């Protein structure tokens, strides 16, 4: 049931890379509702330490506790006109596509449009 709830709220082009789902909220009440809904389905709240299933992050750079299974990586693009970005990744992840919240829906892929540590270079 919880998986179905999340999949109904997922958009593979905007908020779900196959392992991590990102929810946006414009107010504290919005994010509290999201947290409460996920908790009701059995997910651990952001204050659960290493057992947490969610992390709260603001666009201004503030982040709640970051569990050891999650990392923030520096992403560089092979098209040097695009500035580097930071991306949330599950450690030892098999997912190599980035979510893209910009109007451009293309999903940059490690090795093809961009790279991050451990660097693999451009795949031709």
In short:
The chain is an alpha+beta fold and 124 residues long.
Number of helices: 2
**Rg on CA atoms, Å:** 15 Å
In angstroms, what separates the terminal alpha carbons? 42 Å
* Helix content, binned percent: 10-25%
* Major sheet details: 3 strands, antiparallel
As residue ranges, the low-confidence spans are none
List keywords for this structure.
124 residues, three-stranded antiparallel sheet, alpha+beta, globular
Protein model, in words:
- 16% of the residues lie in helices and 13% in strands.
- It is of the alpha+beta class and 124 residues long.
- The protein has helices at 2-8, 28-40; strands spanning 70-77, 85-90, 114-115.
- The chain has a 3-stranded antiparallel beta sheet with strand order 2-1-3, with no helix packed on it.
- It starts with a helix and ends in a 9-residue tail after the last strand.
- The model has no long low-confidence stretch (mean pLDDT 83).
Q: How would the blueprint of this fold be written?
A:
Elements: H1 2-8, H2 28-40, E1 70-77, E2 85-90, E3 114-115
């Amino acid at each position: 049931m919880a998986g179905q709830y999340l999949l109904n709220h997922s958009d593979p082009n905007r908020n779900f890379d196959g392992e991590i789902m990102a929810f946006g909220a414009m107010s504290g009440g919005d994010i509290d509702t999201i947290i409460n809904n996920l908790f009701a389905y059995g997910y651990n709240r952001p204050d659960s330490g290493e057992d947490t299933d969610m992390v709260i992050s603001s666009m201004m750079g503030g982040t709640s506790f970051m569990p050891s299974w999650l990392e923030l990586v520096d992403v560089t693009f092979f098209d040097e006109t695009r500035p580097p970005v930071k991306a949330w990744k599950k450690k030892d992840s098999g997912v190599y596509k980035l979510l893209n919240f910009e109007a451009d829906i293309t999903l940059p892929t490690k090795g093809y449009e961009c790279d991050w540590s451990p660097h693999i270079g451009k795949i031709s």
